[in-house]
């Protein structure tokens, strides 16, 4: 499958899905019946975030980046980043019969988690600004910053499976 | 001590400097890759991965143009040769290979193959929620990139298994055959039959030239 085919595929990513996913985010507490749905929705959000992040980086690496699509992906990343803190309602961590990598630190250290989410939001908002300015160097810089904010958040707030 | 000619031993240089540097560099970079992946230092993980890619490429090239004990032609044997060696394995005075023995040859071929596969999978791998992806991931879809990432993780477990076997073999050779493989890989010398051959080596400049070419190639490939 050629590169252009991938490009056409990804352009068919429906924005409606993003909006629907955002609407599914629950800000309040969760009862037991909702937890599975919340965790699955959370995973779907992160996958959507990953897809848009990849699409953005792919577009940046082209010899002639399409600024329209860079703008679209940057806005979607920003929208998802803004909504991220609402994906972790109380009681949606481990121990409810559904697999999740969300660390209990999220709920035990809400201020630190909010700060991490804020760092990501700032980087994501900067991406939309850089996209609007068609500034590729700034975009690359803030894409790196966004990646670093993801990593630093994962280090504290995401558990990993291990061999022991 | 036996008076047989084969019992008279001398210190023979078996590993050239590039091969020894390669061995310990792979060990260090593999450990860095493991730690950085487990602790979400993905930028460093990528850099260490590029290093492993360069090292594996170097070793493959060095296997054709390096010193005698580094060359594949000097140690890769067919099934019959491996079997003959295995039958003598428990005897201390059995087959004595200068460099890699036929069983070790199998190990290094599998190790190099898995390391090469690991780096290739990593080049195309895509992180689940973005932030860090392989430098060639733009050529595959998100879903395919995720499949590469899963294979990257599965192949890593195979590598751990192989490293476990490698370490077991080192202990076995030390305890059963009385050979210290680790020190030989540090200083390059091992005790060998005095009547045995002395391997030839090539100029270090050849290694430097090969390493520099590969370094440039990897940089161009991943566009750091």
Automatic annotation (TrEMBL), chain A:
Gene3D superfamilies: Cytochrome c/b562. One of its GO terms (molecular function) is iron ion binding. Pfam families: Cytochrom_C_2 (PF01322). The keyword ATP-binding does not apply. It comes from the Bacteria. GO terms for biological process: electron transport chain. Keywords: Signal. Residues 1-32 form the signal peptide. This is Cytochrome c.
TrEMBL record, chain B:
Residues 14-188 form the Cytochrome b561 bacterial/Ni-hydrogenase domain. It comes from the Bacteria. GO terms for biological process: respiratory electron transport chain. It is a multi-pass membrane protein. It holds the Pfam family Ni_hydr_CYTB. Keywords: Cell membrane, Membrane, Transmembrane, Transmembrane helix. The keyword Amino-acid biosynthesis does not apply. GO terms for molecular function: electron transfer activity; heme binding. SUPFAM superfamilies: Transmembrane di-heme cytochromes. Gene3D superfamilies: Transmembrane di-heme cytochromes, Chain C. GO terms for cellular component: plasma membrane. The chain crosses the membrane at residues 21-37, 43-62, 106-126, 156-176, 205-222. The keyword Phosphoprotein does not apply. It is found in: Cell membrane. This is Cytochrome b561 bacterial/Ni-hydrogenase domain-containing protein. It comes from Acidihalobacter yilgarnensis. The lineage of its organism: Bacteria, Pseudomonadati, Pseudomonadota, Gammaproteobacteria, Chromatiales.
């Amino acid at each position: 499958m050629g590169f252009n085919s991938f490009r056409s595929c990804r352009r068919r990513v429906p924005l409606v899905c993003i909006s629907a996913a955002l609407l599914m985010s629950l800000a309040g507490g969760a009862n037991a019946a909702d937890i599975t749905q919340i965790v699955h929705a959370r995973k779907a959000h992160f996958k959507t975030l990953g897809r848009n992040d990849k699409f953005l980086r792919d577009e940046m690496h082209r010899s002639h980046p399409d600024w329209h699509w860079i703008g679209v992906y940057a806005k979607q990343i920003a929208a998802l980043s803004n909504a991220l803190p609402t994906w972790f309602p109380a009681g949606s961590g481990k121990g409810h019969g559904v697999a999740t990598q969300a660390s209990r630190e999220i709920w035990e250290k809400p201020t630190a988690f909010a700060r991490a989410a804020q760092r990501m939001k700032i980087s994501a908002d900067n991406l939309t600004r850089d996209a609007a300015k068609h500034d590729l160097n700034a975009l690359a810089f803030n894409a790196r910053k966004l990646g670093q904010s993801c990593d630093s958040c994962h280090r504290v707030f995401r558990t990993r499976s291990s061999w022991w | 001590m036996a008076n047989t000619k084969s019992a008279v031993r001398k210190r023979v240089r078996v590993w050239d400097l590039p091969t020894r540097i390669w061995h310990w560099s792979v060990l260090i970079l593999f450990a860095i890759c493991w730690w950085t992946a487990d602790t979400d230092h993905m930028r460093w993980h990528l850099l260490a991965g590029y290093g492993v890619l360069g090292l594996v490429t170097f070793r493959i090239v060095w296997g054709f143009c390096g010193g005698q004990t580094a060359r594949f032609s000097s140690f890769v044997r067919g099934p019959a040769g491996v079997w003959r060696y295995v039958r003598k394995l428990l005897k201390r005075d059995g087959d004595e290979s200068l460099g890699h023995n036929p069983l070790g040859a199998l190990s290094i071929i599998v190790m190099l193959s898995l390391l090469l596969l690991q780096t290739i999978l990593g080049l195309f791998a895509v992180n689940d929620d973005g932030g860090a992806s392989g430098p060639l991931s733009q050529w595959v879809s998100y879903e395919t990139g995720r499949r590469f990432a899963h294979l990257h993780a599965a192949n890593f477990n195979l590598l751990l298994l192989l490293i476990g076997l490698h370490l077991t073999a080192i202990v076995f050779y030390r305890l059963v055959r009385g050979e210290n493989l680790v020190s030989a890989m540090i200083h390059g010398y091992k005790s060998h039959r005095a009547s045995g051959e002395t391997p030839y080596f090539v100029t270090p400049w050849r290694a430097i030239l090969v390493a520099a070419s590969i370094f440039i190639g990897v940089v161009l490939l991943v566009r750091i």
